[in-house]
Amino acid sequence: MAVPIICIVGKKKSGKTTFIEKLLPELKALGIHAGTVKHDAHSFEMDHEGKDSWRHRKAGSETVVVSSPTQVAVIKSVDKELWLPELAEQFFADRQLVIAEGYFRSDQPKIEVHRSDAHTHPLCDSQNEADKHLLAMVSDVAVDTGQPTFGLDEAKEVAVFIARHHLGWVQSGMWSDQKKPPAAGGRERKTL
């Protein structure tokens, strides 16, 4: 079974990383084991010159794994950028959810983070066919997308929304008696 993916999208400096930092502990509190992918449209370098892993790569290794008792890191050369489902299948099979920062152009479900002091208009537009995968909006102002809107400090409510409406935990009875989801309450709002 494929690992579900949700992309956290938004314009530059909208607060995507900050919101993910708030969301991850809330997902964990609900018993959801999540992993993250950060999209980088440019090339990046994780190795540092002179380190053993860097030396292995320079000598010709196309995949380098650095392993310790508490962490594993994989540095792998690729001929083309991997799609999110490929990344999820290869690296997140032991997780219940992948949160991807970025990947606006993917066909995966999206939650947009929008701050009015950074941008006048959100990235997603309910009239745009390309934005049909928008699940919800996180914003400091009312935004009419036809999807639920949450405040910037409502990471707990967004985690519950993801568990209920995207992972289907309530309907499938995956909540244990000790881990029942909080009531949706008044904080989860439909379009304002």
Can you give a write-up of this model?
By secondary structure, the protein is α/β, with parallel strands linked by helices. Mean pLDDT is 83; it is low at 171-192. The chain has a single domain (5-42, 80-179), classed as P-loop containing nucleotide triphosphate hydrolases (Rossmann fold, 3-Layer(aba) Sandwich), CATH 3.40.50.300. The radius of gyration is 18 Å and the shape is globular. Strand 3 (63-67) and strand 4 form a beta hairpin. Helix content is 22%, strand content 20%.
Which descriptors apply to this entry?
192 residues; Rossmann fold; six-stranded parallel beta sheet
Set out the fold topology.
Blueprint: E1 5-9, H1 16-29, E2 34-38, H2 52-59, E3 63-67, E4 72-76, H3 84-91, E5 97-101, E6 110-114, E7 134-139, E8 149-150, H4 155-166
Parallel strand pairs: 1-5, 1-6, 2-5, 6-7, 7-8
Antiparallel strand pairs: 3-4
Shape: globular
Oligomer: single chain
Radius of gyration: 18 Å
- Structural class by secondary-structure content: alpha/beta
Distance between the termini: 35 Å
Strand order of the largest sheet: 2-5-1-6-7-8
Number of domains: 1
Instruction: Average the pLDDT over all residues and give the rounded result.
Output: 83
What is the tally of beta strands?
8
Strand content: 15-25%
| Spans of at least 5 consecutive residues with low confidence | 171-192
Q: Do you know the CATH topology?
A: Rossmann fold
Major β-sheet, in short?
6 strands, parallel
* CATH homologous superfamily annotation: P-loop containing nucleotide triphosphate hydrolases
The CATH architecture is 3-Layer(aba) Sandwich
Helix content: 10-25%
